[in-house]
Amino acid sequence: MKHSKIPLSQTVVTLCKTHGVRHIVISPGSRNAPLTIGFTNDTFFNCYSIVDERCAAFFALGIAQQLQEPVAVVCTSGSALLNYYPAISEAYYSNIPLVVLSADRPNYLVDIGDGQTIKQKNVYGEHVMYSVNLKSDLKENERPVQDELPIIKTIENKVERFLGLQKDVQTFNESEIHEALTLAKLKSGPVHVNIPFQEPLYETVETLSINPKPFRLKDLVEIIDEFEIKHLVDIWQNAKRKMILVGVLQPNSIEERWLRDIADDDSILVFTETTSNLHHPDFLPGIDKIIAPLDSEGFEELQPEILLTFGGLVVSKKIKAFLREYKPQEHWHIDLFRANDTFFALTKHIRLSPNTFFKTFLSEVTHHTKSNYKNTWLKVREQRRKNHDRYLEQIPFSDFTVFDELLKTLPNKSQFQVGNSSAIRYTQLFQLRQDISVFCNRGTSGIDGSTSTAIGSATVSTQRVTFITGDLSFFYDSNALWNNYIPNSFRIVVLNNQGGGIFRILPGHKNSENFDTFFETKHQLKANQLCEMFGFEYRSATNTETLKDGLNEFYKASDRPKLLEVFTPSRKNDEILLEYFNFIK
Fold first, then answer.
1. Among 101, 140, 420, 455, which residue has the least CB neighbours within 10 Å?
2. Spatial CB neighbours of 272, under 8 Å, sequence gap ≥ 6
3. What is the model's pLDDT at position 156?
4. Element (H or E) spanning 46, and its range?
5. Which ranges of 292-367 would DSSP assign to H, the alpha helix?
């Protein structure tokens, strides 16, 4: 098997293999050639070539999102790794394990005027779990770096000193790589390994020159404080209004028995988001349908004594505003590593996984508190749903009706990837089937890499993947289609309302040239020529009839992926959505 001749490259590749990092997304370059040689010549790794580094990082994020294991991205030096930053920040706030392997020059070749050199050390700042700048392998013709190595002064001890220093360098590099890869997995977040390479970069050997020391992979250990659990149970059982709010979760991540136990308690109200992937007849999805029409009396009636949260970040602005004004007496957040004080009321960070917490906590709960809290709001939910259906019967073709038609036709047991901004907020208003898995980049909630993430997900998912996105998000990330790994079953729906429709919903003066240009960003772009260039089958729809016809053909098997572009009236969508919340009262 062919290896890079450079020991540092051999070390990185070998230790990635030791840690089970199988998926490697590589962007072409020269300085990262030693890594490319090492990864692509070992059949253990699944290697992908993605030219655009921003797309590459989000593509890798989509793979890691699905597999819940570290995925590596490999780039050359200079501006290349800066293009990873949007995906790195998304991975950080979404708890997704990305491993950045950035090639670099040795320290003494940085800031001397060479091209594609920047200060790469700690470039991601606080948006990674760990950052390390590895040490370059020693060479006799290398100029030593003062802050890393002592200058070798005498010929007599030169060889002895060289071998000793090289051993120290190897030990340091192995230790730091192990630490980075371990944290990526255990803390489920991004890490950065910066790797300086000396030229020549392309020389290969058939045998490894390194022999890494044995390393025991660490396991995650959860520590249960039984005294604390019993104290929380006492507070819990005395409360008549307990609200559970669930953010982003992987499908099937909470055991069904805990969901049933929670649902049996009439003093518990469970709000779930579309991205929660939790389902029960007594839970309340469609949070905004419940919250938006309430007056002060309704808010007071809904205000919980205890708020229990788990999962990732929450989409609904309305429930954030509600809980910030009508604060709970207690707010407990369950997460092994992080607790955001989203509602400015956090009183307890429970450092356990949700399943571990519920297993311990619910076994200590001796009785369910008598209350009409849940049943009151289940009645409200049913009335809202009836009004929701009535509203759909009377409105014209619009973004709202497109989501209704699309969500009804999603293939059974499939995956639904959702773009940010309007797309995820419309999706939140509908009740999805239990067999649909939903994903969205809600860590930073940016529009920049949604398409790339969906494609990365589709590459490794066992489910069929449908992706819906707004037009600005789609065109912004159009290089995502420059990808040789897109499954033929992959489907994209582009909702084209000729601009950033969400800005029409926000307060402010509309229908002016200034608003159209600098806020909504009006355009006349269409996706048909992109589809022709990148090999997608293209279809469009402009009304309910053509949409239904398009969806009838959309999911049929084909020899290439498909894109359905739906054109809606930009000047009506905001009015229809805003009137919706008045109607469902």
1. 140
2. 246, 278, 279, 283, 284, 285, 287
3. 42
4. strand 46-49
5. 296-302, 317-325, 354-364
Give the Cβ contact number of residue 23 at 10 Å: 22
As a whole number, mean pLDDT of residues 411-434 equals 95
- Please give the CATH number for the structural domain made up of 226-378: 3.40.50.1220
What is the rounded CA–CA span in Å between residue 492 and residue 469? Answer: 8
Distance in angstroms (rounded) separating the CA atoms of residues 453 and 58 = 5
Residue 358 tokens, joined: 């519920």
4's enclosing H/E stretch is: strand 3-4
| Cis peptide leading into residue 200 (ω within 30°) | yes
The model's pTM is: 0.92
Max CA distance (Å), the chain: 92
User: What's the N-to-C CA distance of the chain in angstroms?
Assistant: 68
What is the tens place of the pLDDT at every residue in 445-461? 888 999 999 999 999 99
Give 472's contacts (C-beta < 8 A, 6+ positions apart): 421, 447, 499, 500, 521, 523
- The Cα–Cα gap between 555 and 549 comes to 11
Whether the predicted pLDDT of 157 surpasses 90: no
In this predicted structure, what is the pLDDT of residue 219? 85
Q: Which residue type sits at 475?
A: F
What would the mean pLDDT of 29-39 be, rounded to a whole number? 97
CA distance 467 to 399: 15
- Given a cut of 50, whether residue 5 has pLDDT beyond it is yes
DSSP string, 434-482: TT-EEE---SS--STTHHHHHHHHHHH-SS-EEEEEEHHHHHHTGGGG-
What does the domain layout of the chain look like in residue ranges?
A: 3-198, 226-378, 395-583
Query: What is the architecture, at CATH level 2, of domain 395-583?
Result: 3-Layer(aba) Sandwich (3.40)
pLDDT, tens only, 244-263: 999 999 999 999 999 999 99
